[in-house]
Hints:
Layout: H1 10-19, H2 34-49, E1 54-55, H3 80-91, E2 94-95, E3 103-106, E4 109-112, H4 113-128, E5 163-165, E6 178-184, E7 189-196, E8 206-208, E9 214-217, E10 222-225, E11 229-233, H5 234-239, E12 244-246, E13 264-267, H6 275-280, H7 286-291, H8 296-299
Antiparallel strand pairs: 1-2, 3-4, 5-13, 6-7, 7-11, 8-11, 9-10, 12-13
The protein binds zinc ion.
Amino acid sequence: MANPTPAFDVKLVQGKLVTIGYLPAGGDDGKWGGGSKRALIRFKRRAAKSLYRISQATGGPADCAGSDLFTGAVNDTVDAATITELDKWIAKKWKAPLGRFAFKDITGGKLREDVADEWTKLVTRIKGLGGTIDSPYGDTKRRPGRTSKSGASSFSFHIAGRAIDIDQALGGPPNHRYYIKKESDGTGTVWRIYCKTDKQDGAQGKQYKKGDVECWSFWGKKAYQIPEGYYIDLTAEIEASGQFERIRAQTGWESNTNKSEWWHFQWKPDKQETFGDELELVGYSEKDLKAVGYTEADLDRKPG
Length: 304
Ligand SMILES: [Zn+2]
C-alpha cells in the first residue's frame, strides 16, 4: 500500500498549515502528499528550534519565549501533540516568520537590520581606537542564487545579510593597514588581523617591534615580519562583543587567495538549522528560492 489513507482529517490539518503560512492559500486539497509533509516538517522545526514568529494580525515580530517551544519530534507525523501545537499557533496568531527581519543600508552596503545596527556601532568603536573597518567592502548582502565563483558559497551567510567582507585593498600596499597573521583553531586555518592605527605617536594601539608578529603575504605567498609601529588587534576587537566571528580559510587557500576568507566576518547569534530557515527570516520563501535554482535538498543544508 504505497499511500495509505492517513488516520487524521487531512483537509483540517492542511487548513491549519495554510492559516499559519506553511502552505499557500488553497493548499488544503485533502491529499497528504510530499508538499504537505514538507510544510509540516518546516513548521515543526521552526516551532521546536527557533523563537522567531510573526503576527498574523500585523505582520510584525511576535517572537515567543523559550518556554513556548514545541517539545515534540521534528517529523511529518500528525499526532495529538502536533495538532495541539498547530492550534497554539492559531490561538496566539503566530505565523511563519517570513520576513521577520528587513534589510538595512549601511555605509557601503546592506545587511540584515539587527546586524546592520551592530556593525555600524562597531565601525564607530574601531574608529575611536584608531583602526578601520570602514567601506568600501568586498561584499555585504548578496543576492540568492547558485554560484560557481571561486571561494563563494551558494549557501553563504552573505545571502541572509549576516556577513561582511572588509576591504581587501588594505591588506597590502599602497594603503597598507591590515597585517594578517596565520593561526590554527585546532581544525583549520584562521587569521588574525592587526590594524595599523591612525596615530603612530603612542596615543592609539599597542607598540609592536619588528619580529613581534609573523604575517602572511597573500600576494608574495610568503611570511614577513610586522613592521615596527602601533597596531590594534582588529580581530579581537571585532569579536569582543561575541556578535561577530571570523571563519576558517577554505581548503586550497595556499594556491587560491579567494579561498582565504581573511576579510570575512559574520553574525554569530541564532544561526538557523537550515539555509532555507535562515533565508525565510529575511523574506525569501521556498518558492522564491526554487525559482532561482535551489532544490529542497539545498534549502535543507546547513547555512554558511
Ligand atoms: Zn565573505
